[in-house]
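Standup notes, structure subgroup. Blocker cleared on the beta-L-fructofuranose input:
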Amino acid sequence: MKQHTMLAFDLGATSGRGIIGTLNNNRLETYEISRFPNRVINIHGKLYWNLLSIFESMKETLAECVRRKIPVDSIGIDTWGVDFVYLGKDGSLLSMPRAYRDPYTERIPEQYFTHIPREEVYRITGTQIMNFNSVYQLYAARKENYAPHLHADKILFIPDALAYLLTGKCVCEYTIASTAQLLNARSREIEPALLQPAGMGKDVFPGIVFPGEKIGLLSELISRETGFPRVPVISVAGHDTASAIAAVPAQDEKFAYLSSGTWSLMGIELEEPIITKDSYRMNFTNEGGIEGTIRFLKNITGMWILEECLKIWKRNDKPYDYEEIILMAQKEKPFQRFIDPDSPTFACPKDMLKAIAEYCSETGQLPPENGAETVRCIFDSLAMKYNYVLGRLKKFAPFPIEKLHIIGGGAKNPLLNQFTANTTGIPVISGPAEATAIGNLLLQAKALGLVENRHDMRRIIRNGIRMETFMPVETDKWQKAYREFLNITRLEE
Ligand code: LFR
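Run returned:
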């Protein structure tokens, strides 16, 4: 078999990366070729992503491949969900994309539900109600009379927007579209009625394409500018979480996954959506996966809280690295205080340390006094929240959940992996940490006809990475602390 080399662009809320993957005899070798910052920019109180800077970094990555003589056969792009850009009639970008943490959607869903009731929106889409979903962003933009919204001819989600900048072709990739709360979960098409309150019709979205289809060739202009050949840009699973889940190295279907990064996405893989009164009440989502699968999952606030604390410590001349943080937490006394990571106070506070301290005071607990106490509180609380969501997930799973696969950057935290095994009482298997990029690369390989299906993909991953298993220990102690966590956070079981 000819050796194939692919380039994955994997964009998260804090950084973007170019990853080269080479598939040779069913072995995938990967390495990072570029890494660039991604951040939110505040302009007159509105929060934006700097799409042009991302685009520039992508072009520099292409030029770097040329400099290093890497013979790339295709390109794929995955990013975070829900955000989008508006294009004008002439195809020009009307503005930078608003960032999902922009408070413009605060209290907007409730107003939207005066047009279409909340239950109805969930019944059609099966998507969890979160105020940053594209449907509410569009409605908020309409209410603001946001000029790009009023003049839009087309809307492209972030991976589609970047593919458009690279190829000039407009598509609406299915997995990323499924985060918008605009898709009909059954027909997998945009539901026009849901766009009406935002004053738009279905034709603002290009036709849906599925992972594995080709979007187009790299544009002649960029090819000339960078020296990079005109290879196909492939529609992978444009949503980072979908790409990550495609890369869960599971052997059978009896698993739950936790895709751990800025967000922690916990769920199961299904053949059909589950849209019931209970899934509505517990706000589980049915996002689109590869090969017709459904990602039945829940968003849990993940490393975001820690990332925000790290930023503050860095500003205060305490630039802790990840290993130090883990060591600090390990040495600290357990279960001194708990937070609910998903409390709205942690969504976008000006000062995360203050937000944690206030939460503790309000719930009758002593606020953390130093970095070690803070990180221990974050890790204890995350592990507890994972157990809480897993308990709910078990009620829906059509199979016994026998293990939890933790993938993504957060999988590199052995302490939290062990805590999670202890609190959930099931084995935790960690890795790959690079799941999003690996999923992206193997979906390109599938589009090129090099692998057959997700089972093949997962076998390649299993053979190629080091996985670690964490068996539950001290479960009684953790169960007791879990009761305490439920008491403090007032979460109902
Ligand atoms: C993870 C993620 C989640 C999505 C959140 C916001 O990076 O894509 O799946 O809910 O970001 O887009």
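Discussed briefly. The first helix runs from residue 51 to 67.
Next: hand off to the docking folks.
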